[in-house]
Amino acid sequence: MSHRLDRYARRVTSARSLPPTERDRLAEEIAGHLRDSTERYREGGLSERRAERKAIHDFGDPGRVRTDLGRAHQGRRVLFRPSGFSEHLSAFLIYDLKIAVTILALVILLRWQVVSAYHIPTKSMEPTLHGDPRNGDRILVNKLYYRFFPPERFQVAVFIREGDERSLIKRIAGLPNETLDIRHGDLYIDDRIVRKPPEIQEDLLVPVFADNRDLLGELQGDPREGLLAFDTVGEWTEEDGRYLAAPGDDGQARLEFAREISDEYPGGSQRSDGIEVGDLVISFTVLPTEGCGAVGAELRENGDCFDLRIPVGSSGRAVLLRNKEEVDGADGVFLIPGKKTRIRFQNIDDRVTLRINGREVLVFDVPDPSGGDSQPVPAVIIGVVDGGAAFENIEIRRDLYYRSEGQLPTRIPPGHYFMLGDNSGNSADSRTGWTVAEDRLVGRPLFVIWPFNRAKVVR
Question: Could you report the per-residue pLDDT of 302-312, keeping only the tens digit for each?
C-alpha cells in the first residue's frame, strides 16, 4: 500500500470517539477502497502519483470525513448533502464552527496584541501621513515591534503620553541621555548635525515645483506654470514642456525660481508665517547643444551660495563653488552635446551632493555653515553658459524644516525619547517640554492602508 494512502486512512479514522480496534478496522477498509480507486485511475492512464491524489480527493476532506465517522459511531446525525437553510446551518455547526471560532480568536488576538489600525486626525505628520478628522490616513501598526527591537532615531512611532490616554504619532528624534537642539531647521545631537537615512530622506522631500506646476503658488492662490514660475535671464522659449535656452549678450541664460520657498505644505496644512527653507533639491534633464560651454545650477541657503558648473564636451571636471570659491569637484564628469543627462543637485542637512543619471559623483559636507539670516532672493537657479540647451522634467523639492520653538536645547532623560512631528509648524510635540518613556511606546506603523490611493510603507 502507498504511504500516502495509509497516512490518509489513519488520519480520517483518528476521531476520539472511535475505539482503537474500530480505528484499525476502518483504516484498513478505507485504505483498501483507496487502493482499488487508485488502480482504476491508473488503468485510465494516470500516473501513480496523480491517481492517488484523485482517489483521496474523491473520498473527501479528511476533517469532514473524520467528523462523520465519529458521529456515525455515536449514532449521531451526519449530513452528506445538506439542503435548505436549517440543514446548511446544522452542517456549519457540525463541520465548520471550530474552525470559525479559531479564526475569530486569532483575529481578536492579533487585533489586541499584535497589530492595530489607527486613524490620523491631524496634520502634524505631513507629508508622511495625511491627517484629517474624518478622511485622514488609516495606518496598520505593529504593536510587538518595540518588544523585540530598540527604538531608533527617525522611526515613526505610536505612543501614549503620561497622563494622556490618547494614542499619538510622531517621529523619534532624540534618544536617551542625548542633548538635542534645532538650528536653522536642522537637527543637532550633542552639538553635531544628524542626517536622515537616504530612504527616509527621500520620502520626506516636499514638492515645490513639478510637472511644470508651481505647487506653492497653487496653495497661495497665485499659480504660475511653466516659464511663468521663473524669472529669466537670456532668451527662453517653452515647447512641449521643454524649456529652450539661448544665452543673452553676456553669454548666459538662467532660470531663477521666482517664489520664496517656505515650510508650507501643498494641500492646505500651511501656516501664515511660513519660514524660508534653504535645504533644497533641484532635478532636471538637460540636452546641451553643440557649442554649449557649461550647464550649471545654484542653491542658496541663508548666507551660503552653492554654485555647480558641469562642462560640456568630450572631457572635463565638474566644479562646486561656495560663495564663489571652489570647494570640491569631480574629475571626468562632463556632459556630451546632443545627449540627454539627468542631473540632481541638492543641499540637505549641510551636505551638498551631485548625482548624474542616478550615480552620486560629488559629496561635500559643509564644515562651517554660515547660518546668516536668509534673504528674500530666489533659492534655486539653473542655466547654461556660452551656448544653448533644452531643459525638461524640472523638479524642485524641499526638506523638512524643524522649528526651534520651545525649550531647546534640552537633555533627554534616561529611558525617554524626544518626539517631533514632520510638519513642525503644526505639531505639538516634545519641544514643549515632555518626552516619552520607552514603556509608553505602543508600536511602529507599517503601512498606510486607507485610502488606497495613498497606500504605502511608512518610513
Answer: 789 999 999 99
